[in-house]
Write a structure and sequence with these properties.
elongated; 7-stranded antiparallel beta sheet; 7 domains; 3 helices; mainly beta
């Protein structure tokens, strides 16, 4: 329909219906074209024409008009629409898009033109034009589509509408060529698809006199601008050319159909694998045979295949989903090769050994180093030592821990064999021995042995710069021998050097819709860039919504010990200056170890004494060997306290005094002296042990120097320890027992005990002692390997001793499993296993007959460490004083009622999140606990075994209810979610 500002000219619209003239016997007498005529303005039917479809002349039916058996034709439809091309800056350009569809609705072609009819190419986003406020511009372009010229060419009429709503025609566009013409549309323009200027009927047949079909014919009608048939043309249905009948054109016999065209989507696969989809249109003749085809792209443009044409593969069903995950650094071990520089034997506490002339660089580098044979003479024992200081680059490893490994190969080049102890590979921290591996005892000439050590270590210990490696080898003992050391290696393996921060990224998983199998995985950063996983993929941990800092606070009850008149001054073994054959092992000074000459001296200065005060030196002593023979091998020490060179006090004690066994390290009589005006003294221990090569191995454990009669007053207080998320201590806070009043310790802080400040110890505590064992490895009935046994003795209940461990050389770091333990003899140069140990235990006497002990006393027992003899009661006394004998009248088992319980310890925890707080498991003596829920819900588990949710705002308390209740059996608390916050206040013994 054409729209203009002038009055519309009345027009008619002609419809065409092809019908057959059927006689009463069913014979088709002819074909008629019925043309209903409608007024295009009112839509009323104004007339009907019935004409011969071939000649166009009026047709008079002789029978009844009805539908013919053949199907009518179908024409493509073209529509046009004004769209907008929107640029990135928002500018919108209008253009006309014409689209042509076939009878099945498939898109055949698209043509873009400017409003002036020129070709147009969109460069931005194509869409419906945005609306504008009324009368934003004086005119609004509009197009009318669906019109065709008299020859069937589709056109679009352009009109404008002004602000008043008046519409004016400007021109029209030829949608086939894109040409624009001003003014009104040509006469004869009609609506496309309705009454056409050219109409093609259904298919007819050219039938010869014999009744054979000699051709297929289409009848093409051309109409004038008023809708009347202007001309008729017969068209060859196969070629499209003009057809000249040879017979009679009539309705086709049954079985003869219009040639079909098959359209398939195929794929053109190039040699490089590129696949291009296209459309192939097959043409068939009247018998269905393919007579040709045409190829087009999917948008209707002609296409020529260049590769292999075949069916397109059916795209399988796929699904995809994207999840947020984290790349967590994997736990790994960082191996560092330390650097070693030559050091002196004194730096490692090995001054009792002569220093091997250096340098040792070749050994530390993995090469070889020779220990030259020493000429002697006898009975000297020469064990030169090569010492190195260990350092390492620990960048990025702060807080890391791991293992320090060292290995070296040693070869006895002869000519002599080793004699007894032939040397060792050792690691020390300062002068404290960390680990030692002995060379094979009595190693024959030609012996090759690899010595290895491995000790736990921290990066902080390495950084301290006081780690040493030492190799001691015997070059003379009864005979000369040369050694070669090589293949030295050292490694430091640390965990904790790697990054610990997780990285978030997106993982897209492509899965099969039917099986659910993962077919592909793509990783990207959160902004879509490719991402490569470097650690382990794990679910990201949610951050708690609370702003409460991560960490924990633990509260412990401690005691502030204030001594009167002065605090004891500790004198630990590693604080002494060592001369001669003495080493520090643990908290002891060990003299003449490994049967070296008796030359050891250990001394140190003690300052801060009160001038003129009666003072005393406290220490323990013992010995580690039996001596051979015992009568001439004695462990003897001399202890001196000096003011400069003046001896203030001295004591010489023969510990073993001919005994044929080792002696435990036990308390010695305090050495009393009067503090000089300077308040400074020197404490000195000297080894005076006697006997030949097999001496007693004197052991001294220095304790304290203190004023006689020292007493301690214990003041209990609370100390809160605050830790961060990693367990690192951030700080402490001290308060009085009320938990709020600040407290400042005045003396020594220690763990509280019931006897704090009394100067006594708990005689019922289990005791741990060492004894020597002998292993018969060669089956001769005599022990040839000496080892140490560690026993636990229970003086309180008199139960059998328990063997805890066995190890070599008195070193718990060197475990040993005996093959055939035997009783040690003098020939074994070890201890007498039948030596009894004296131990104290607590006893209770029921003097009032109520079944409960009301008098505490001390029992003295003789214990056989070998377990051969039962413990024997030697006597009983009061107040732990043997000078106060006591005879119990009705001994009973001691119970909790027999002693005054110590003060309760208290604790408080502020908890956020879901981490379980098992207070009963952490504190077996739990007495009470109070829960206050601050946020969310807390799940509480007691002895009934079920978790009960307690909501926010609730406070609950549990405690022991009866005197016979010793503790709460179960008490566990856990937040229901990461948002949970709660307080726990508790007491425990």
């Amino acid at each position: 329909m054409i729209v203009s500002g002038a009055a519309a000219t009345p027009r008619v619209d002609v419809k065409t219906v092809l019908l057959c003239d059927v006689l009463a016997d069913g014979t088709v007498a002819g074909v008629a074209l019925v043309e209903p005529i409608y007024d295009t303005t009112s839509g009323a039917r104004v007339g009907t024409r019935t004409v011969d479809p071939v000649t166009g002349a009026a047709y008079t039916p002789t029978g009844t008009l009805g539908p013919c058996s053949s199907s009518g034709g179908c024409n493509a439809t073209t529509t046009a629409q004004i769209l907008c091309d929107v640029a990135a800056d928002g500018t919108a350009t209008q253009f006309v898009r014409a689209t042509t569809y076939d009878c099945e609705g498939a898109l055949l072609a698209t043509l873009d033109r400017g409003l002036d009819g020129t070709p147009y190419t969109a460069t931005g986003t194509v869409g419906v034009c945005p609306t504008s406020p009324d009368c934003e511009s004086p005119t609004t372009p509009v197009t009318s589509v669906g019109l065709c010229l008299a020859d069937g060419t589709p056109i679009a009429v352009t009109v404008v509408r002004d602000c008043t709503g008046a519409v004016t025609s400007e021109g029209w566009i030829n949608l086939t060529t894109g040409a624009w013409s001003a003014g009104a549309v040509p006469a004869g323009t009609v609506a496309c698809g309705e009454s056409r200027s050219i109409q093609v009927s259904g298919t007819f047949c050219d039938v010869d006199a014999g009744g054979d079909v000699v051709g297929l014919v289409l009848v093409e009608y051309t109409y004038d601008d008023i809708g009347a048939i202007a001309s008729v043309r017969l068209v060859d249905a196969v070629t499209g050319g003009t057809y000249t009948p040879t017979g009679t054109v009539t309705v086709c016999p049954a079985g003869v159909e219009q040639p079909e065209r098959d359209i398939l989507e195929l794929c053109d696969t190039a040699t490089d694998g590129t696949v291009t989809a296209f459309v192939r249109d097959y043409a068939r003749d009247e018998n269905g045979a393919i007579v040709g085809h045409s190829d087009y792209t999917l948008d209707g443009a002609p296409y020529t295949p260049t590769g292999t044409v075949g069916s397109c593969s059916v795209e399988p069903c796929r699904d995809s989903q994207t999840v947020l995950v984290c790349d967590v650094p994997a736990d790994s071990t960082t191996t560092i090769t330390p650097t070693i520089t030559d050091a002196t034997s004194a730096e490692a506490g090995l001054q009792r050994f002569p220093t091997l002339p250096g340098p040792y660089t070749s050994l530390w580098a993995g090469g070889s180093l020779v220990w030259p044979a020493d000429p002697g003479p006898a009975p000297a024992q020469v064990h030169p030592v090569a010492t190195g200081k260990i350092a390492a680059d620990l960048a990025g490893c702060d807080g890391a821990s791991g293992t320090l490994n060292v290995s070296v190969r040693v070869t006895n080049n002869g000519p002599g064999k080793g004699q007894a102890w032939d040397g060792a590979l050792q690691l020390t921290k300062g002068t404290t021995l960390l680990a030692s591996k002995d060379v094979l005892h009595d190693a024959p000439a030609g012996t090759v042995q690899t010595l290895t050590l491995s000790v736990p270590i921290t990066a902080a210990e390495v950084a301290a710069g006081n780690l040493y490696v030492a190799l001691v080898l015997e070059t003379f003992h009864l005979s000369s021998k040369q050694w070669t050391a090589d293949q030295f290696t050292m490694s430091l393996e640390l965990e904790g050097c790697e990054a610990t921060t997780a990285t978030q990224f997106l993982r897209t998983l492509v899965t099969d819709c039917e099986t659910g199998d993962v077919l592909a995985t793509t990783d990207t950063t959160l902004d879509g860039q490719p991402y490569t996983v470097t650690g382990e993929v794990a679910q990201c941990e949610a951050t708690a919504p609370s702003t409460t800092p991560c960490g924990d606070t633990e509260i412990a009850q401690l005691c502030d010990l204030v001594y009167s008149p002065a605090a004891p001054i500790p004198v630990p073994a590693d604080s002494f200056t060592l001369t001669g054959n003495v080493v520090v092992i643990g908290d002891t000074l060990q003299f003449s170890r490994s049967n070296v000459p008796v030359t050891g001296v250990a001394e140190r200065a003690v300052t801060g004494l009160t001038s003129g005060a009666a003072s005393e030196l406290l220490f323990d002593a013992g010995w580690g060997g039996g001596g051979n023979p015992p009568a001439t091998n004695d462990a003897i020490y001399q202890v001196d306290v000096l003011d400069g060179t003046t001896v203030l006090a001295t004591s010489t004690v023969n510990l073993s005094n001919g005994s044929g066994s080792a002696g435990a390290v036990v308390a010695q009589p305090p050495l009393a002296f009067t503090a000089p005006p300077s308040g400074t003294v020197t404490v000195r221990f000297t080894d005076l042990s006697t006997g030949g090569a097999l001496n007693r191995d004197l052991v001294i454990r220095p304790l304290t120097v203190e004023t006689e009669g020292t007493e301690a007053t214990a003041t209990p207080f609370l100390r809160a320890f605050t830790y961060d998320c990693t367990g690192l201590l951030l700080g402490t806070r001290d308060t009085e027992l009320d938990g709020s009043t600040p407290y400042t310790p005045q003396g020594e802080v220690s763990v509280c005990s019931a006897t704090a400040g009394t100067g006594t110890t708990d005689s019922c505590a289990k005791q741990v002692i060492e004894r020597c064992g002998c292993d018969d490895t060669d089956g001769d009935g005599i022990g040839d390997v000496i080892y140490t046994e560690l026993w636990a003795i229970d003086p309180c209940n008199g139960t059998d001793p328990v063997l805890l461990a066995t190890y070599e050389d008195g070193d718990p770091a060197k475990p040993y499993t005996p093959v055939a333990p035997v009783e040690c003899t003098v020939d074994d140069s070890t201890t007498d296993t039948n030596v009894k140990q004296l131990l104290e235990r607590c006893g209770c006497d029921d003097t009032d007959g109520d079944g409960i002990g009301d008098v505490l006393y001390t029992e003295l027992w003789a214990i056989d460490p070998s377990g051969t003899d039962a413990p024997a009661l030697l006597g009983a006394y009061l107040d732990g004083d043997p000078s106060q004998p006591y005879t119990p009248t009705a001994p009973v088992e001691c119970t909790a009622e027999d002693s005054t319980p110590g003060p309760l310890s208290t604790g408080v925890r502020a908890v956020t999140g879901t981490a379980a707080q098992d207070l009963a498991g952490s504190f077996p003596g739990l007495q009470s606990v109070s829960l206050t829920v601050l946020a969310d819900t807390v799940n509480v588990t007691m002895t009934d075994g079920s978790a009960v949710p307690i909501p926010a705002g609730v406070t609950m308390t549990w405690s022991v209810a009866k005197d016979e209740d010793s503790a709460l059996a179960a008490a566990s608390f856990a937040g229901a979610s990461a948002a949970a916050q709660f307080l726990l206040n508790y007491t425990y013994r």
